[in-house]
Automatic annotation (TrEMBL):
The keyword Ion transport does not apply. CDD domains: arylsulfatase_AtsA-like_MBL-fold. One of its GO terms (molecular function) is 3'-tRNA processing endoribonuclease activity. It comes from the Bacteria. Keywords: Hydrolase. This is MBL fold metallo-hydrolase.
Length: 297
């Protein structure tokens, strides 16, 4: 099993960290989790264009996690996709996708009529709404839907992937959540969001003290995420969905490592974690995770 950070950012625009998106590869199965801004470019750069995806999972219906959905559908069609894209998401996903496709219908109809491509099957989106604790089978992957706490968002999920003797847990957007800690127990890799509170000062005209407090209130603070990984007994912790996108990386690493003794990876766009080989790949660099990500299940 391999995990690829496609976008490690948040709603704050960044040229380093694109919108939230993650790719899981296992024995010929390719699953995309969320489709934030720039996901189609990142998929292409990662060597798995939208054409080749087996499924898209949505953690929740916040804009930064699904803003490029239409682009994903159309670009996959342009790449020669010959089948609908299965989309799994929380209640409300069908309404959102139907509304999105209705909004773009005039443009899409014009494209279909003018471009004369061999198939339009990729434009027939297949949506399945999922529920907490549901278990999906995607190729050789077993995926458990984990309810997380992102209130006031009513339906928000994390996911636990199991395959090839490995266990990968993805938090989605959440404050500290006992259900996620329980579901991630003994994971070879826990991929968790992080809110770096000290780097989100009040800025007049941009964010007030109330803004900062409210945003922090439904995310996981950098002072908490290491404790969560330790409590879950994860072999390795990787951070993503950095709020804000630009932060003092060394200070963040020191803070998290004070609470978690295992390997800590600060995710970067297009970084890959190979759970089978227990290593991180980024550009031409390959780094061993040592004792992390070596358990069998």
């Amino acid at each position: 099993m391999e995990f690829v950070f496609l976008g490690t950012g948040c709603p704050v625009v960044s040229t380093e960290r694109y919108g939230p998106a993650q790719l899981i590869l296992s024995d010929g199965t390719a699953v995309l989790v969320d489709c934030g801004s720039g996901v189609t470019q990142r998929l292409l750069a990662a060597g798995t264009p939208g054409r080749d995806l087996d499924a898209l999972l949505l953690t929740h219906l916040h804009s930064d996690h699904l803003v490029d959905l239409y682009q994903l559908i159309v670009s996959s069609w342009h790449q020669g996709r010959d089948r609908p894209l299965p989309i799994y998401g929380p209640p409300g996903t069908k309404r959102y996708v139907e509304g999105l496709m209705t909004l773009w219908e005039p443009e899409l109809s014009q494209r279909i009529a003018h471009e004369k491509r061999p198939s339009t099957a990729a434009l027939k989106v297949a949506v399945t709404e999922i529920a907490a604790d549901e278990v999906l089978s995607l190729g050789g992957l077993r995926v458990t839907v984990v309810p997380v706490d992102h209130q006031p968002v009513r339906h928000a999920f994390g996911f636990v992937f199991e395959g090839g003797g490995k266990k990968l847990a993805i938090s989605g957007d959440t404050r500290r959540c006992p259900a996620l800690i329980e579901a991630a127990a003994g994971a070879d890799l826990l991929v968790h969001e992080v809110f770096v509170h000290r780097e989100m000062p009040v800025v007049p005209g941009v964010r007030s003290a109330e803004t900062v407090a409210n945003v922090a209130g439904y995310h996981t603070l950098s002072s908490e995420v290491g404790k969560i990984a330790a409590e879950a007994g994860a072999a390795c912790l990787a951070l993503t969905h950095f709020v804000p996108p630009a932060c003092d990386r060394q200070a963040l690493l020191d803070e998290v490592a004070a609470d978690f003794a295992g390997p800590v990876v600060l995710g970067e766009d297009l970084m890959r974690i190979d759970l089978m080989r227990a290593c991180v790949n980024h550009g031409n660099a390959v780094v061993s995770l040592g004792g992390g990500v070596k358990r069998s299940h």
